[in-house]
Design a protein that fits this description.
Shape: rod-shaped
Number of helices: 5
Helix content: over 70%
Largest sheet: none
Length: 109
Amino acid sequence: MSWLSDFWSKVKGSSGFLFVIILTFIYFSFYAVKGERGLLRYVYLTEEVGNARSVAQKYAEERRDWEEKVRLLSSDSLDLDMLEERARIVLNMVGMDEFVILDEEETKK
C-alpha cells in the first residue's frame, strides 16, 4: 500500500495532473452526450424508429385493404358488385338514370 500512498501524495501536489484528469473527464462526458453514439443520438434514433414503425403500420393496413379488394375480384370468389364497381370506374361509364357522387378519398386510391 505504500506505493499507492506515494502516488496519491504526488498527485495531490501536482495541479497539472489534476487538470489533465479534469479535461479527460470533460472530453469523455461531452462525447457520451453529443457523440456519434451518444445519448442525444440514441434519442434521435429511437424517435426515427418510432416514426418508421408508424409508417410501416399504415402501409400494412393499406396493403390489407388492397389484398381484400383483389380477393373479391379473384376468380375463386368473384363478387359481382365489386366487378361492376371496378368496371364503371375503369370505363368511366354510368347508366342513363344514375347519378355520380365522387368521393375524394376513393378517387385518390
